Amino acid sequence: MIAARRLQSCEEIEVAGAALVADIAGGLYWPQERLLVVADLHLEKGSSFAGRGSLLPPYDTAATLARLHRLIETYAPTGVIALGDSFHDRRGAGRLGDRDRTYLSALQRGRDWIWIAGNHDPAPIGGVAGTAAAALAIGPLAFRHRPEPDGPEGEIAGHLHPVARVGLSGGSVRGRCFVHDARRMVMPALGAYAGGLNVRDRAFARLFDQRAFSVHVIGQSRVYRIDGGYCLPD
Questions:
Q1: Is 179 in a helix, a strand, or coil?
Q2: Where are the domains of the chain?
Q3: pLDDT tens digit string along 181-227?
Q4: Per residue in 78-116, is it b (16+ CB within 10 Å) or e — as a string?
Q5: What is the CATH topology of the domain spanning 7-232?
Q6: Which residues of 147-157 are buried (b: 16+ CB within 10 A; e: fewer)?
Q7: Which pTM value belongs to this model?
Q8: Cβ contacts of 78 within 8 Å, gap of 6 or more
């Protein structure tokens, strides 16, 4: 249980017997281990696109680090796991501006920091603090970038950038979400420019019984728990 938290801005979820907290900022906190987990930061996506001639506002890294800062300030974790695609490409860390590099270093200071390899950043990330790993198991949970149908019990993954569309009177809303059952979770992307994939896509059907999964949708002021059966295709 997280003391002094407004429960509408976070929701407790149990995966493989571990009690976890899904936060409105898009991170996952494991109180027992004082561990914060984030997925798909895609830092320096804007500069990556600019290098290929597609101009995007160059503020995504600062916006994403601000989301990360909010989570660290809220939970004061002793460890952080970034579940892969932390940088948008293999050279992203080298393109960090001085201000963003200093910001990231301040967030890392005094914490164990694990960079899980992703498909965008499969090699160890150079030029920043932290430890590289292909995957990591702690207690009942297994942290990795890409979820697999035959993945281990307690799998916590990213990669798919889940979003849910839910019908309302007169229309629908669409938002980033945590998608899970009692066995595994796929986390939302934290990156400001990350985009999303609808939980009704067949990529999720390979992972979850479509009649027995839940989503926790990130709204403007709270996290909403919704049975997966109420989610709509795009």
A1: strand
A2: 7-232
A3: 999 999 999 999 898 999 999 999 999 987 789 999 999 889 999 99
A4: eebbbbbbbbbbeebbebbeeebeebbeebeeebebbbb
A5: Purple Acid Phosphatase; chain A, domain 2 (3.60.21)
A6: beeebeebbbb
A7: 0.92
A8: 34, 35, 111, 112
